[in-house]
Amino acid sequence: MKNIWVPLSGQVAQQRKVETIANNVANANTVGFKKDQLVFKEHLTALTQGVEDIDIPRKEFSPADFYHTQGVENAMVAVDGSFTIFEQGQLTPTSNPLDVGLQGDGFLEVLTPTGVRFTRKGNLSLSREGELVTDQGFKVLSSLNVSNEALREPAAAESFPKPEDRILRVPTNMKLTINQDGEVLTRDGVVGKLSVVEFQDKHALRKEGNSLYITPDETNINRTNIKTTVNQGFLEGSNVNAIEEMSELIKAHRHFESIQKAINTYDSISGKAANDIGKF
Amino acid sequence: MIRALHTSATGMAAQESNVNTISNNIANVNTTGFKKARTEFDDLLYETVQEAGAKSSGNTEYNVGHQVGSGARVSATRKIHSQGSPQMTNNPYDLMINGEGFMGVVAPNGELKYTRDGSFNVDAQGNLVTRAGHRVFPGIVVPPNIMRINIAENGTVEAFTRDSVEPINLGQVPVFTFVNPTGLRSDGGNLLAATAGSGQAIQNVAGENGSGILMQGAIEASNVNVMNEMTDLIKAQRAYEMNSKVMGVADQMLQTINNVR
């Protein structure tokens, strides 16, 4: 009866999948949202024990030896990980000059009370102090155009401004223009530059909620040679694809049901074992 | 599975709020000086089942983590302060701001409120007032038996009487700007109030310091674009439907489990 855990693991995995789809669909209209996708893996129960602990026959195989693996011969399903799909979302015009839509792999750098975070959500506004902020009041940082190699130099690290010193302040009574490089201009010229950064490995980013991402590894940030363009007056829609999500949902649902059939079969087999065979 | 139910419920609630905002925009499609609002969403917190970078064995680590999100929420309804189109009325007391800024209105309790709705007129005492009878800041009194009244681009109000050739200067209508007009609070009746988020009002002579110029004899139409609103409405409805489908599937899966025995 221990084999009932095998289909069960499949059901748990499908349940996780539905939960992920639910989150994608719930965020179908969230600005700058990037959908998640789950990857399953075959999880050999054999691997939960060290190789040395398993009594795998090291001699030539014979049927009797099969049972020496002591219940670790099953292959379960496990969720391997959730990938965030960083596909470009659609840019839609908003007629709001402080909306910026990013096109490319970049992220805006913002300062939250708990540190520097990254976001694709470009609906910015001005605080009353004249700082460029997100709608939660997190301050948008200005660009630090140095390579990571230079930042890692122990002597140089001190001389570069801290995130607190890079808060972007702009004049408040003039029309702002933001060009494709992220430079903020008034009619008097450039007054600042939005910090748009890219990452060596985007998949190392972690979602934190509130449309923010955090990088566990500072060296992953790429500050120079940014290919992302900044589009003023546009917002990036979420990249959730309705058809895809719905078909994935149907698939997950049907898989779940067929796994349920397998569990039912297990149940009726053990029912036979207990009742019918017991009659003899 | 209960989590998927909750997650899609948060999505449905967010879309419902979105439809509320859209319907308010559409309801105010002909409201003078109305600025449309836009619902903005955020994703909620994530449960990190498996941290990226955690050890997967002695000397390797997981390259990707496993995170399960818990839905969406409305983070803001943002007013879009884009210019509405002018409507010529030929009423000499009607004012419209072409550009940034707001006209000041003294509420009955003496508090200063702000508006883009310049459909003004004079009351029995000759005060320049809004339709609701609130006085326009700083208080312009129009004398009786005037022939014409002229309001200049910079807000100077001049009246021509039958008795004299020279016009009488009645005062000047200022234009207030805010560092962050998005932070203003809508108080209904086409009035807005300053908040901690918008910052203090800055009083300008119309046309100076980036404030707009005044236009006499015109009012500003609402900046609601019905086509955009309808598209947003369709998007909201479809998103709502998708969420309810997910909820239905989560429910059916729960039902399947419950029917095992």
TrEMBL record, chain A:
A GO BP entry: bacterial-type flagellum-dependent swarming motility
Start and end residues of each Flagellar hook protein FlgE/F/G-like D1 domain: 102-184
UniProt keyword terms in alphabetical order: Bacterial flagellum, Cell projection, Cilium, Flagellum
Presence of keyword Calcium: no
Record domain Flagellar basal-body/hook protein C-terminal: where: 232-275
A Pfam family matched in the record: LlgE_F_G_D1
Entry's Gene Ontology cellular component terms: bacterial-type flagellum basal body
Location(s) in or outside the cell: Bacterial flagellum basal body
Lineage: superkingdom: Bacteria
InterPro entries linked: Flag_bb_rod_N, Flagellar_basal_body_rod_CS, Flagellar_FlgE/F/G, Flg_bb/hook_C_dom, FlgE/F/G-like, LlgE_F_G-like_D1
All residue ranges annotated as the Flagellar basal body rod protein N-terminal domain in the record: 9-34
Family classification: Belongs to the flagella basal body rod proteins family.
Protein name as it appears in the record: Flagellar hook-basal body protein
Organism expressing this protein natively: Peredibacter starrii
Automatic annotation (TrEMBL), chain B:
Protein name: Flagellar basal-body rod protein FlgG
Segments forming domain Flagellar basal body rod protein N-terminal: 5-35
Subunit-level organization: The basal body constitutes a major portion of the flagellar organelle and consists of four rings (L,P,S, and M) mounted on a central rod. The rod consists of about 26 subunits of FlgG in the distal portion, and FlgB, FlgC and FlgF are thought to build up the proximal portion of the rod with about 6 subunits each.
InterPro entries on file: Flag_bb_rod_N (IPR001444), Flagellar_basal_body_rod_CS (IPR019776), Flagellar_FlgE/F/G (IPR020013), Flg_bb/hook_C_dom (IPR010930), FlgE/F/G-like (IPR037925), FlgG_G_neg (IPR012834), LlgE_F_G-like_D1 (IPR053967)
Major site of localization recorded for this protein: other
Domain Flagellar hook protein FlgE/F/G-like D1: 96-159
Originating organism: Peredibacter starrii
Family per similarity comment: Belongs to the flagella basal body rod proteins family.
GO cellular component: bacterial-type flagellum basal body, distal rod
Lineage per the UniProt record: Bacteria, Pseudomonadati, Bdellovibrionota, Bacteriovoracia, Bacteriovoracales
